[in-house]
Design goal:
By secondary structure, the chain is an all-alpha fold. Helix content is 56%, strand content 0%. The protein has a single domain, classed as YgfB uncharacterised protein family PF03695 (Four Helix Bundle (Hemerythrin (Met), subunit A)), CATH 1.20.120. The chain contains seven helices and no strands. It comes from Marinobacterium marinum.
């Protein structure tokens, strides 16, 4: 399924997905971690049908079979939106993170969790072909591994802190697009420019 063949699907709402995970007893699963993991798998070349998607999520997070249709639908929506955004020609890929009105340390932690999920998902997916990531792609994964440890002061809320987080968030977004382009479009002429060093929060 490509973005041309299907109606546009939006990412599920962060808080709604969080509530549905709790309702299913998946108290330790963050929407950001779940999205990062699915994004990492898709970036590495994975594609799922509904049954295999739900089975993968249940296995990776060690949760009981998803009973409620609401969460099953949200997981499928999350996957389809992720795939569509990766394939979109305008680099419209988004990260599923808490809303901007949440405290900055909470958002920074969620970004680190997203990166951890992405790296886990990418590492779990067996990629086809002999070619690996380029040097730039490998450096990008190392940068994401550093961002997993991102943190801010508990009282950080200045415009500078906000700007730093937005800069790191945009880097992560473009890094994911670069990895996807290398693993899924080997003949692509253009890839997102993520040559700049990963920014670090003060």
């Amino acid at each position: 399924m490509t973005h041309e063949q299907a109606a546009e699907v939006e990412l599920p709402d962060f808080d709604t997905l969080a509530d549905r995970l709790v309702e299913e007893g998946a108290f330790t699963v963050s929407p950001s971690e779940l999205h990062g993991l699915l994004a990492g798998q898709v970036a590495a070349g994975a594609r799922f049908d509904p049954d295999s998607l739900l089975q993968r999520v249940q296995e990776l997070f060690d949760i009981e079979p998803l009973r409620g249709p609401a969460l099953r639908n949200s997981v499928m929506q999350l996957y389809l939106a992720t795939l569509q955004q990766f394939e979109a020609p305008d680099f419209s890929f988004e990260l599923l993170l808490p809303d901007d009105d949440q405290l900055l340390p909470i958002r920074a932690e969620a970004l680190g969790v997203w990166c951890g999920g992405f790296l886990s998902g990418f590492g779990l997916q067996e990629r086809k072909g002999a070619g690996g990531l380029s040097v730039e792609g490998q450096e990008t994964l190392r940068d994401l591994a550093q961002i997993v440890q991102i943190s801010t002061e508990a009282d950080a809320d200045s415009e500078e802190d906000e700007g730093d987080l937005m800069e790191v968030q945009e880097y992560v977004r473009m890094a994911a697009l670069l990895v996807f382009s290398e693993c899924n479009e080997p003949d692509a002429q253009a890839a997102p420019d993520v040559d700049a060093p990963a920014p670090v929060l003060h």
